[in-house]
Amino acid sequence: MNIALLIILAFLLLSIFLGIRSSKGKDMNLEQWTVGGRGFGAIFVFLLMAGEIYTTFSFLGGSGWAYGKGAPALYVLIYITLSYVLSYWLLPEIWKYAKENKLMSQSDFFVSKYKSPSLGILAALVGVVSMIPVIVVQLKGLGIIVSEASYGAISMSEAVWMGAISLTIYVMISGIHGSVWIAVIKDIMMVAIIGFLGIYLPIHYFGGFQPMFEAIDAAKPGFLKFPDQGLSVSWFISTVILLVFGFYMWPQVFSAVYSARSGKVFRKNAIISPLYTLMLLFVFFVGFTAILKVPGLVGADADLSLLRLSIETFDPWFIGIIGGAGLLTALVPGSMLLMSVATLLAKNVYKEFAPAVSDRHVVRLAKFLVPVIALIAVYFTLNGGETMSALILMGYSLITQLFPSLLFSLKKNNPINKYGAIAGIITGLFIVICITLSSSTIGTLFPSLPQAAKDLNVGIIALAVNFIVMITVSLAFRKHAVQLEPKSVNDI
Fold it and tell me: Among candidates 328, 332, 325, 292, which has minimal Cα distance to 308?
């Protein structure tokens, strides 16, 4: 057993200990397990939301895209920064409504706003289907990190199983409390490691940032510009818009929002968080450095660029620290995702068909579902070949279909009814799924369109059709919705 593997295992054991320890002295009822009793302050909420945003993708996928795609990788930096602007107004409204109505999940929000359990079930299923690819990304990233950083002493499949079992144990015991404790260590480690690598490696190999970019431009002319086709400027803009709209649509993000003690924390975080996003620049610098120093990584192997370059540069003990930090970037979001999927299925799907069951029964069912969901995620992790970025983009295309109905629900006089919301979401999902399964693009479907239109992200097209259908159906069923509207929440 090498020193790198020992350090990684030490991080794993520390995470399990903290995850279990965090539940001490707390009655793990549904509210404590899912939203931490709504008692987290600004720092914990910041760390939880950062944990959802800066994941293994930050470690591996960001550098992998810089390595394999060049300039288009900057979409990550842009959409996250713009999303914080949206959060300044959006999140306090969601938090306030959730607190007043004692909501515990994203699906609860749709049920309460549209007075429609059916819409709640649909939102829950959309959330579950969208989150599976993201859980796969975390497990895949964890497997890559542990396997590479241990110099092959642990295979990727063994690492995935270890990670899935660890997540399952502390999520079942501690829920969101385990995630927030581990998030504290994870963010300190990630900032230190990524900051160091992003500065040290370009200077070590090229003498600075400018010489590095000059060397890449000389070796691969045009690589640092947007291509004329494919990942072009129109793809970039449409992808950024899609991801900004979908940024806060993830169910686990709603759980983090509900856990806040006050709505003011989101406005403080919206001011600070864009500065934190600059850290991703250092991830890109690592990917750009690797282009000329570890060439030949293609397809999904591009995600290995950070680790392969680090292994060629540093001693094993430091690789162990990098591997430990990378491990934490998978555990925090992975635990929140597992908990959110389990809660949605137990509370917002099962309980709708068995309304007499108690919250304690729902918690037990949700905890039982955690290992089941983990097993499903492990299966797709070990049998899929997509790059991390491709999986993330697919999840975003699906979850963003909830955005139009959520946005209109915040209006005082919402012109959208449940029929329009359901029809719009289903239509958007249908378009995304059909085009994804057929591997079609706008260009292959409509070859006569201008190149800029052909390159649009398919998710933005589905979102536009979703919006049109939502408005049209709401107008068509306006009188019917008014006649059937319940007089109180108890009538739902």
Answer: 292
**DSSP secondary structure string for all residues of 461-486:** HHHHHHHHHHHHHHHHTHHHHHHH--
> Which ranges in 314-387 belong to alpha helices (H)?
316-343, 351-353, 359-382
pLDDT at 446 over 50: yes
Q: Could you give the CA distance from residue 422 to residue 126 in angstroms, rounded to a whole number?
A: 11
Residue 472 structure tokens: 């049209």
The string of pLDDT tens digits covering residues 139-164 is 888 888 888 888 888 888 888 998 88
Query: Position of tokens 């949206």?
Result: 86
**Calpha distance 76→472 (Å, rounded):** 34
Contacts 24+ apart (CB under 8 A), 72-77: 72/226, 72/227, 72/231, 72/235, 72/236, 73/284, 73/287, 74/236, 74/284, 75/236, 75/239, 75/240, 75/243, 76/280, 77/277, 77/280, 77/281, 77/284
Rounded CA-CA distance 421/236 in Å is: 28
Q: Greatest CA span in the chain, whole angstroms?
A: 72
DSSP 8-state class, residue 37: G
d(CA 297, CA 303): 8
Task: Give the torsion sign (CA, 80, 86, 88, 93).
Answer: negative
Query: Percent of the chain at pLDDT above 90?
Result: 28
What's the Cα-to-Cα distance from 440 to each of 127, 445, 461, 466, 467, rounded to whole Å?
24, 7, 13, 19, 22
Angle (CA) 258 39 275, round 5°: 70
Helices (H), 150-219: 156-174, 176-206, 209-219
Average pLDDT in the 233-240 region? 92
Task: Pull the structure tokens for residue 392.
Answer: 């993330």
Structure tokens at 469: 């259908």
- What is 301-317 written as a DSSP string? GGGGHHHHHHHHHS-HH
Nearest of 32, 144, 55, 10 to residue 335 by alpha carbon: 55
